[in-house]
Specification:
Strand content: 25-35%
Distance between the termini: 75 Å
Oligomer: single chain
Order of helices and strands: HEEEEEEEHEEEE
Shape: globular
Largest sheet: 6 strands, mixed
Number of strands: 11
CATH class: Mainly Beta
CATH topology: Immunoglobulin-like
Number of domains: 1
Helix content: 10-25%
Structural class: alpha+beta
Length: 170
């Protein structure tokens, strides 16, 4: 009898955890937070910069997203070395995201998202913003050049949800 109750208890825990798991692993789930909660700032350098320290923000830029599959503004200019706080607001009724990268990286990521639309990722250069919500992203642009930001939810990038970041050499 004891063995049977142990199995029933284990099965009940499995069912409870299974029911909670999908919400916890949604890659692009709705978010109520205004800012990402990152306890540590990544030192990882990308071709388009690195995660910025919120204490070193030099400027704040508001970016709006809409269901017209557009960003506003769609072009921004920053200086090499600047740490920008992006306040990303979703004015639409569907989930959107802002992902910073090179054009090649964004295209590759968009293709991967088509194949695996539920993939989980939460990088410091990404903001996933639910309908009517805001999120902050802090990024330091360490290299001059042209970079981009896009919504990589399947169909959004292809519909033109893309912006350009021009980083002027210091």
């Amino acid at each position: 009898m004891k063995k049977a109750s142990t199995h029933i208890f284990a099965a009940a825990i499995f069912v409870a955890l299974s029911a909670a798991l999908p919400a916890a692993v949604q890659a692009h789930g709705e978010t109520d937070s205004v800012a990402k909660v990152n306890t540590e700032i990544s030192a990882e350098e990308h071709g388009f910069g690195k995660q910025g320290d919120p204490k070193n923000v030099t400027r704040t830029i508001a970016i709006d997203m809409s269901d017209r599959m557009r960003f506003g503004p769609s072009e921004i200019t920053v200086k090499e070395g600047e740490t920008i706080r992006f306040v990303v607001t979703n004015k639409g009724k569907m989930l959107h995201e802002m992902v910073i990268g090179t054009m090649d990286e964004l295209k590759a990521h968009a293709e991967m998202m088509k194949k695996h639309p539920g993939m989980e990722h939460d990088e410091p250069y990404m903001a996933h913003v639910g309908a009517g919500k805001k999120q902050e992203l802090v990024w330091q642009f360490t290299k001059g050049g042209e970079f981009y930001f896009a919504c990589l939810i399947p169909g959004h990038f292809e519909a033109g949800m893309l912006g350009k970041i021009k980083v002027l050499k210091g």
